[in-house]
# Entry
Amino acid sequence: MSNSAVNAAPVITPEQLLAHWQGHRRVTRRVIEAFPEDQLFSYAVAPMRTFGELVLEFLAMDVPTLEELTSEQPRQYETPKVQDKAELLRLWDEHSRRIDELWPRLPAEVFQETRTIFGQFTSQVWDLLWYVIDNEIHHRGQGYVYLRALGIEPPPFYVRD
Amino acid sequence: MSNSAVNAAPVITPEQLLAHWQGHRRVTRRVIEAFPEDQLFSYAVAPMRTFGELVLEFLAMDVPTLEELTSEQPRQYETPKVQDKAELLRLWDEHSRRIDELWPRLPAEVFQETRTIFGQFTSQVWDLLWYVIDNEIHHRGQGYVYLRALGIEPPPFYVRD
# Structure
């Protein structure tokens, strides 16, 4: 990284990245809410996972990634054992609060450092964080298809507040 | 934006953001390639758009957004008129090259400026660019569902080279 990159105006600040991520999390929460309770962990376009299972993957990555990056303690990749909508929403909100809490413990310098998380993914910290966010967008888009196929209007993609 | 933010190590540099975007574009290209010619502009999970139509939306946003940001000339939002796979791939590659060409004309300072594009979307430049990328990830995830429903294995999401 050149000195000019360090001194230039930022593309995005840590605060903006957090706000951007939390905006996406609000959309994902609305998608979970839009699913009928009896379809969240049962419906899928075969041979895919249910939207509930995809959300459990998001929860296995989001806070654990931040915990590992801020504490430098290895974390296991573990999928929460949840099978109902109310509990999934409760866990979603708990993780969103925990992300706000952990975020300030990531100093600006860390984003360009190279780290390994879950004992297997090695990359620069910005890239590890973007993977978590992009993976949420990718699979949430699949949830939109499930909702449409069920005749349910999904929440607008562009409303993030 | 505080002075400390300006002087801190960057979350992501302009060069890294370009490489990240082009990595996603390579995945999207592989998804286009994976569609059988006769399904690209005809198959969809009702009542959604075909994957070909979704890609035309990406092409209406990607280069036009960069052209407007680098020239400060208003651009129209116009969807290309393409209905076959070979021509769609040709246009995709042309836009990928054009993105590489235009990117260096975005000075680092511009990412934090507020601009209006297509005469209607006003936000900071980083947010306008992320919208283009996130929208591609979102709808490409839907293309993955279409491929699975057609019995076709989609390209891995995590392979970006």
About this structure: Residues 12-149 of chain B form a domain with the Four Helix Bundle (Hemerythrin (Met), subunit A) fold (CATH 1.20.120.450). DSSP finds six helices and two strands in chain B. Residues 1-6 of chain B have pLDDT under 50 and may be disordered.
